[in-house]
Every structure is written in C-alpha cells, then in structure tokens.
Amino acid sequence: MKSIITLFLCAYCTITLAAEKPNVIIIFIDDMGYGDIGPFGATKQKTPELDRMAAEGMKLTSFYAAPVCSVSRAQLLTGCYGVRVDVPGVYSPGEAHGLNPKESTIAERLKELGYATMCVGKWHVGDQPEFLPTSQGFDGYFGIPYSNDMQRKSTATGERVSPLLRDDKVAELLTDEQQSRIVERYTDEAIAFITKNKDKPFFLYLPHTAIHTPIYPGEKFRGKSSNGRVGDWIEELDSSTGKILETIRKNAPNTLVIFTSDNGPWLIKEKDSGSAGPLRGGKGSTWEGGVRVPTIAWWPGKIAPNTSVDAIAGTIDLLPTAVSLAGGSVSAEPVIDGRDISPLLLGISKESPRGVHYYFSRFNLDAVRKGPWKLALKSQNETMGRPAEPDAKDNTPRLYNLDKEIDEKTNLAKENPEIVKELTALAEKMHAEIGGDQPTARRPAGKVANPVFLYPSEGRDRDAKPKQPERKKKTE
Fold first, then answer.
1. pLDDT > 60? residue 352
2. What pTM did the predictor assign?
3. Closest CA to 357 of 438, 442, 293
4. Architecture of domain 358-447
5. Separation of alpha carbons 295 and 28, rounded Å
6. 397-440: per-residue pLDDT in tens?
7. pLDDT value at position 31?
8. What whole-number distance in Å separates Cα of residue 117 and Cα of residue 122?
9. 356: closest CA among 338, 334, 379?
10. Beta carbons within 10 angstroms of residue 2's beta carbon
11. Extents of the domains making up the chain
C-alpha cells in the first residue's frame, strides 16, 4: 500500500508541476571544492547568499560531477557518463573533437517543450561552430568557451588573451586582467535573460569561469576574504548568486535553481586552490574530493526549506529531472545514465532512483558506489598533478564505508567479501558497456575535418605563467 501511495504522489506531482512548466537555472562553478561554501563548512570566506539559499532550500550531500572540465560538462548536458558520449577528459582550443551535435542536450529537450534557452559562461565541450551552444539547443551564448588558462597570444597585439564569444562569434579578446570583470558580466547577462523571459518558461545554464586559475576576482572583492584570491572570487560568486536569486524572487518565482560545481579543487594550486573539506583528493581524481561537489537545490514553495538529502545523485540526473518537471519524458533510446530526482527534491522520497554511481577517469572505471559502500578498483592519484599515495598505488580492490569514514582511509575489503563481489560484478558490467578499449555501447564524439582557432594567434602558450593581480591588504 505504501508503494502505491508513493507512486500516486509522484504521478500527481509530475502532472501538477508539468502544467506550471517551472523555469530551470543551473549555476555551475569551475573547480569549487566540497568545503568551499558556508553551507558545507567554509569559514575563511563568507557566503551569506548561499547560506540563505541553503536555509531556504535543500543541500544534496552526495552529489557527483566528474574529475575534470569537459567530461563534467558533457555529463550535465547529455545526462550520460562522459565516456558513453566519448568525452573522456579535457578539450583544447582548436581541437577537432567536441560534443556530438547528434546528442540531445538538456537545452534541446527543453526547447522542444517551449523553453527559451541561454548559456552564459564557460562551455568547454568543443569550440568549433558545430559544437558551440547555439548549435546544441541554446538560443544564445555569451562567454569564454573553454578554460581561462588556455590563453593564446593574439597576432594583432602580442598579448595573451581569451576569446569572449557572443553566440558563435568572437566579440572581444580579453587580457588576463580583463577577466576580473567576468563574473560581473556573466551576472548581468543572466539577469537580463531572466528579466526578458519572465513571462514564459526559460532554461538558463550559467557555467562560471571562476574559480579556475588564473584567479581574477572583481576589484570590489579583492582582499575582502581571509582566504586569498580564491576566497575573494568565491565571495564574488556568492554575491552573483544572491543577485540572481533576488531577480528570481521579483520576476519569476516558479524557478528551480541548482547550484553546483564541475569537479573538486585543483589542490596543486595551493593558495589558489579551493578546499575539499573532509573529503580525500581533489580535481582529476576519483576520490570523493575529486568528484563529490557542494550542491544546493532552491525552489521556494516546492522544495522544503533547510533540508538535506544524502542519497546518491549527480549532474547526469539534471537532464531527466528538468525534462520531467517540464512535462516531458526521456525515451529509452538512446540510453542516458541519469534518472529523475524530482522525488528527492520535492521530499517525496529519500531514496536515490539510481542507487549506484560509477567513477570514471577517462575510459577507466576506477570505482563504484552503492549505498554507503565504495569499491575502488584501480590505483587513484590524489589529484591532478599529484600521484597516488602508498595505500592506493596498486589495483587491489579497496572497500570504503563512506557513511562511517568519509575520507576513505580504511580498506574494509577483507571483512566484507560479499559486498566486494557484488560491487565488482556491477563494475564489470558497466565497464564492458562503456569503458575500456572495446565498449559495446559507447557513442562517438563529434569531429570536424579542418578545425580552426577562434582568432588569429601565435601559439598555444599554456606554459607561460599568467600574471596575477596584486592582492590588496585586508582592511579592518
């Protein structure tokens, strides 16, 4: 009887919410760690707007992205593990590959349901015209199309610059110092889009450039935190999010907002790195600190305030969730890996509709999680640029209970052979499907024959160290 009632409530909520067609905003931070904002334990930088967002909404404390930039974005956009759509790592400027236009993105699916769509920020799933947002379901685009450390020297000026695109054309070439206005400019674009479309359903994807290095907080925020440049930029992101939420309150209250990150902190950047808090590892790793990210869901009147859910969820679940709330459905083919988590968000259930999460590092399946148990199958580096510690150097399976030990220190494999056996079987099945060199169900990435760079430039120039602005002394 209980299961029948739950199913009825799910169906009722889906029908009701679909009729209203809620707006959807996804704020996607770059390289923000699990411990970088107040609701997840940060103290060195202040995040009052995100504190309020969490107080008015829900924290998702077992929410997963991917180890690095491009694959993480591909997952959010397609609802698939990155390897399923053949996006395993990080794309470089002018690369021939990108997210295949044949894949159905979250923007395309919502556009079919009558939504206005906009992407503001870092794209990073291909910079060729065929791969840019306006070819992948977005009505418009404004942003730096890849990481802000991928500067090249302009042949016209000799300066290291990053391209700022308007739709599919380069609108400006930004010097490093000009990046200090990028959060402000993204915020203004986002607010303008919300205001323009307040009377019809809209989808805004806001993947920030911050806090990826080089770090350039806005002038008003420099020296304001107690955590150097990175803390200053986090405080600026907090302010930006507050402005967006206030715009929603005034203009479009029927809006679901998800705040999350693409991967964990880039720990080798030291003072310019964020923090994984209690989690082990960072960006580039499949330890929890590399892929479990701080996430808040906010939808006043629909999501209960000051709530928290620890069920497994992740960026791959955002597409089916948004489509369901908009009144649509996702067909069985082509396969996606995500599931509708609206019952979690609406407080109908505390159980994950997936139950299992797979941790891929490029085409390797490093680990699998079911419930509190995580089985690591491979050697795991601590973070990008830092090798494995002695306890994780070989490929002997290691079993961790994340409920009892979130920092993954004690290997419990010998004490729990049946759990190891169960998780190994799950891993082997998924690896055969989309991992390794001979997958049975991997779909191809997009590819162009003659890739070009977005602007005339001298060379890649990623090895030159960007000049960082002087940090102002904190005033009391």
1. yes
2. 0.93
3. 293
4. 2-Layer Sandwich (3.30)
5. 10
6. 999 999 999 999 999 999 999 999 999 999 999 999 999 999 99
7. 98
8. 16
9. 338
10. 6
11. 17-356, 358-447
Residue 401 buriedness (CB in 10 A; 0-12 / 13-18 / 19+): middle
Residue partners of 74: CB distance under 8 A and separation at least 6: 80, 82, 85, 87, 99, 125
Q: State pLDDT tens for residues 266-319.
A: 999 999 999 999 999 999 999 999 999 999 999 999 999 999 999 999 999 999
Q: Which residues are catalytic?
A: 69, 124
Token pair listed for 319: 């597409």
What are the respective helix, strand and coil percentages of the chain, to the nearest 5? 30, 20, 50
Alpha carbons 396 and 411: distance in angstroms, whole number: 10
CA distances to 80, 143, 370, 378, 389 from 424, rounded to whole Å, are: 21, 42, 11, 12, 23
Q: Tell the CATH topology of 17-356.
A: Alkaline Phosphatase, subunit A (3.40.720)
Q: Are 420 and 368 in contact (CB under 8 A)?
A: no
The model's confidence at residue 446, banded by pLDDT at 50, 70 and 90, is very high
pLDDT of residue 403: 97
- Strand-pairing partners, residue 308, are 59
Q: ω into residue 207 within 30 of 0, thus cis?
A: no
Q: Are 207 and 122 in contact (CB under 8 A)?
A: yes
Alpha helices in 42-105 (DSSP H): 48-56, 69-78
Q: If you search the block for the tokens 């509190």, which residue do you land on?
A: 372
Distances (CA, A) of 466 to 176, 215, 460: 7, 9, 13
**Which regions of 63-219 does DSSP assign to beta strands (E)?**
63-64, 97-98, 116-120, 140-143, 152-153, 160-166, 169-175, 202-207
